């Protein structure tokens, strides 16, 4: 099945959940209008329009396609996320803080004061695997204007993320990279929940483990143990 997928930075209070999306037509007009006025809803609409323009019948968006009320579904989704992004024909990376019609080529602390001078998308934990896994990524600015693709922007992306161009262009398959080096790409990235610092890295190492939100930093220790079982690489102890 061919499909497009969205990579984006979640915005507190504006995203549309799975429950809201499936219940939209049953809502009263006041509630329906409140949902439709959210920036998260407009993001879904614009993303759907782009997918239709690119002749895709299917589009996957994490905010409204995962029923987070089900712990089993959430765990399956997080463990499958890397594969889903890898299998997508195209990933739309939405940079909601980029207002210009060109991709930024130099850090600008005035424009992006909270993220080392670059769009905040590059500082989030989950977007690391979402940058590496898909073969094709199209970047869009705040107004959904295309500002470039991963292949063409690879040299700039390397400067931003310290990820080698060959990994950006071809993925991790066949690359002999140490665990410590892959971990280093996530060192400055942030997640809303402590556990997600570990969960967001599982796909990069090809490991799986159950989600236990509330375990805090224990999640990272569990991740280390899973990686040790898979790799004979002592560089992991640097983390």
3D architecture notes:
Strands 2-1-3-4-5 form a 5-stranded mixed beta sheet. The radius of gyration is 18 Å and the shape is globular. Helix content is 42%, strand content 8%. The chain has helices spanning 18-22, 29-36, 39-53, 62-65, 71-87, 127-132, 150-161, 165-170, 179-184, 196-199, 202-205, 218-230, and strands at 4-8, 59-60, 90-94, 137-140, 146-149. The chain is of the alpha/beta class. The relative contact order is 0.12. The mean pLDDT is 95. The protein has 12 helices and 5 strands.
List keywords for this structure.
239 residues, alpha/beta, five-stranded mixed sheet, 12 helices, 42% helix, 8% strand
Question: In a nutshell, what does this entry contain?
Answer:
42% of the residues lie in helices and 8% in strands. It has twelve helices and five strands. The protein starts with a strand and ends in a 9-residue tail after the last helix.
Kindly state the percentage of residues in helix. Answer: 40-55%
- The number of E-state strands comes to 5
**How would the global form be characterised?**
globular
The value of Rg in angstroms is: 18 Å
Neighbour order of strands in the largest sheet: 2-1-3-4-5
Which spans of ≥5 residues are poorly predicted at pLDDT below 50? none
Q: Label the structural class.
A: alpha/beta
Task: Please count the helical segments.
Answer: 12
Q: What proportion strand?
A: 5-15%
Distance between the termini: 39 Å
Look at the structure and give the mean pLDDT: 95
Reported for the largest beta sheet, the result is: 5 strands, mixed
Order of helices and strands: EHHHEHHEHEEHHHHHH
């Amino acid at each position: 099945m061919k499909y497009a997928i969205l990579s984006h930075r979640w915005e507190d209070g504006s995203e549309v959940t799975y429950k809201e999306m499936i219940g939209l037509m049953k809502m009263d007009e006041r509630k329906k209008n409140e949902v439709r006025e959210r920036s998260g809803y407009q993001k879904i609409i614009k993303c759907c329009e782009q997918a239709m323009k690119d002749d895709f019948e299917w589009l996957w968006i994490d905010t409204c396609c995962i029923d987070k009320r089900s712990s089993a579904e959430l765990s399956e989704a997080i463990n499958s996320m890397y594969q889903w992004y890898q299998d997508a024909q195209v990933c739309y990376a939405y940079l909601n803080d980029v207002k210009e019609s060109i991709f930024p080529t130099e850090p600008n602390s005035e424009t992006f004061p909270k993220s080392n001078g670059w769009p905040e998308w590059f500082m989030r934990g989950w977007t690391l695997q979402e940058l590496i896994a898909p073969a094709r990524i199209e970047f869009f600015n705040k107004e959904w204007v295309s500002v470039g693709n991963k292949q063409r922007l690879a040299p700039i992306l390397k400067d931003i993320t310290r990820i080698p161009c060959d990994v950006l262009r071809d993925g991790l398959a066949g690359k002999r990279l140490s665990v410590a080096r892959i971990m280093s790409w996530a060192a400055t990235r942030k997640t809303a929940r402590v556990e997600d610092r570990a969960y967001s890295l599982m796909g990069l190492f090809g490991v799986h483990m159950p989600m236990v939100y509330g375990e805090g930093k224990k999640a990272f220790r569990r991740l280390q143990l899973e990686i040790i079982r898979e790799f004979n690489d002592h560089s992991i102890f640097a983390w």
